[in-house]
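Exercise 7. Given the components listed, write out the predicted structure of the assembled complex. Treat all entries as one system.
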Amino acid sequence: MVADEQSTSRKVGSVMTGFGKDRDRKVIPRWRTFSETLKFKELDALATPQTSKHIFSDSDFLTSKVKEWEKHQTVGHASDLVGAALTLGRQTEVSEAAKFLLRSCSKVPPWAKELAERALRPADNTVSILDPPNVESSNLYAQVRSLRELVRAESRDPITWVELSRAYTTLGQNEKADRTMGVALQLATNNRFVLRSAGRLWVHMEDPEKAHDAIVRSERTPYDPWLLAAEIAIGSICNRRSKYIKTARRMLSDKRFSNYNISELASAVATLEKDYGNKRKSERLFRLSLEDPTENSIAQASWAARHDKAIRIDNKQFLEYSYTFEARSWSLYHDNQWEQVITECRKWQFDQPFSSWPGILGSYVAAVALEDYETSLQFARRGVMANRLDFTLLNNMAFALGNLGRLDEARKELSKARGLASSSEDEVVLQATRGLLAFRGGDIEEGRRFYEAAIRTSARIKDRRLFALAYFFYALQEHSYSGLENHSESVVSKSLQALNGMSDPISNALKNKLTQAVM
Amino acid sequence: MSLCEFLSPAEQLVGRVLTNGWEVTELLPRPKGATGGHFSASYIVQSPQGQQAFLKAMDYRKALSSFDPASALQIMTEAFNFERGILEKCRSNHLSRIVRVLDDGIVSSESGEPSDTVQYLIFELARGDVRSFVDFNQAFEMSWALRIIHQAAAGLQQLHSAHIAHQDLKPSNIIIFERHRSKLADLGRAYQHGEVSPHDHYCCAGDSTYAPPELLYGHISPDWKTRRLGCDLYLLGSLLVFFCAGVSMTHLLFARLDDEHRFEKWGGPYSDVLPYLRQIFAQVIRDFPKILPEGTILSSYHHDIVNRISEAIRQLCDPDPELRGHPRNVGRSDTRYSLERYVATFDLLVRKAEWSLMNKVPVEKLGRS
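Answer.
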């Protein structure tokens, strides 16, 4: 199983399509493409430039270039002027020369044209709220080829190595992802983008110690709130207490950095305080993290508020922020807005294609709440691409395939999941899904045996949620194959009873569904 | 009121005969000031033997009427003396690829006022700078461009051997004499190792719009070679980009760099911004062979040349000055920033380009050497 933001939680498979209780989320850095990360302003310098530096000599080179362009009016003079203006950030002064280059069409070298276009176009730093990159439509293999071409051209470029690592991670090629990230880290041991990406990769690969080592080893970490946030969050996954916790607290109180720059640090320390039981401190820090939040801080605060009633944060207002797909997915889930959960999960999965969680939640809601098994299968498949050894995703795939009548494929996926089962909860899930496949294959007795075994195991481990879900699916299958026979009736009634004891937003939907089915 | 009353003494030299018989024949439109900012006037002069030359006259009266006359005068004088000294050194060392100063002197004004005295330098007369000769409207003339680059590299190598760094190599400072003969000009921003230069205290002594990125961020290496010679190597590579793409490497880097990483906004160390510059640099290097004009002699015949040029740009323009230069020289303190290999490479490429142009044979068929 692959770790995730909710890295220490057990992704309890159920149904069984399943998803775990998101009970232990950490503010692990997001890993987006470099250009997206830039738009989120996560890579700005923390220090302001020193104005006393004697950088430039006394001449105003741009003015002299303007005069020369006015005199000569050639492509060479125009491109020299436009390039110079862009270098100095004074492109508004050279629009005539830029227009001249664009008017001259094919006679102008392509890069000179590109510069002219840039000079006339205002910078676009806006983050699209609803349009994250669509990994499905983009050809990931083509992306890998293009990135490899870039590193061949310049092998010392750590950013492209990170991008390549991300593409490999999305394709589930973890060894290559690991190797390429290692190269990036060797080239830029102190770079924030590289370190945070490396942290996220190695947490994903269930090696948080390696992630923590890389970040803690960087000499920049004690001075950079973004790195410090990652260090504390990842350290807590591997039960390492941060040696910089005092530094972090000081950073949060001394107002040296903007609220945006300390948002994730406040969130990481708030999570620690929550773990220590200091609810008031935790609440105060979560509030600080939301002063000018990142999407990750919003997701973290939403999670904290969902799981601890003592932490009272009204995070609804933040759900309209860019890329808050995770927070919105969970919020909608708790509001029983199933169709919208699917929409948000899809964006979440596109945004973080290697994360198993959007796949798990999306496939669960699609299958259980909406009975849309094609969509469930899509979510699970995309999740499995980057998480080939994820028990829950494989089980959910088998569940969706079983319901679509594709039994051979379902059995194949389930056999993969069987090899990965490692807990009693997993056993419950496996037994239930095997029950489903048996029913679907026409072997009702076998199906009953598996479902009853699942119910017994869940009762033994006192997992009410799994108990209720096992009963629910048993009842559904029993009813559809046996009609209103006595046995079926008894299972349905026990199922409704079990669902009453299930504290999950989906339980009401399940009750309604079962009631409608037997009516 | 006559026109003369509006003109400074430096602008009233037409018709005057100077020391050694130079006759001032024509006042040129005011060029950008290289020595002493905008306090100079330019002329065409003629020797008694009929040789035409270029004269640069220092306009002290303009300096006196500036906001801070004392400073302006001091800057002018220092700059003039420095440039004269360094040109003299080039002449005495027979640096053939550097524009030659033919004469210098002082001419008194007709008014007889000491403040109206004009100092001047007389240079070889060129036909213009590179920008007027690069014609992007026609098929790219690779052999010509490579020849100019070869001569620029040779000029820099000559300067470096005399412990001088040019620091302001750019298209306008390469002057063309005949179609295939060029020299480096404008040593007003140069650095002479072991001596005080007027622009020493600036990170970017030369044109900041061409400067290597580290200097724009105020990153100064304590080693003079890394700082000064490394700068020249970058400028040479950038010039190569200009010839092929019409823009310099600095233009490309800063046009594409995220706004928050620009030097005006960046307060962190240069090493922190370097990965972001390098990412753009990688794109430039990757795309370089693709942007050369379609259907020209270059793209049809000269893939080998393009690859070698691309490699030279990668080595010369590395955003990290410590890694700049030929890989075989990295780690060797004596030849760390040597241009010798590049001079040889460009010479070879000129020959290949010329040969293939004459015979219309793809360079690949000539074999690699």
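Discussion: Chain A touches chain B through 69 residues (CB under 8 Å). Chain A has a mean pLDDT of 86.
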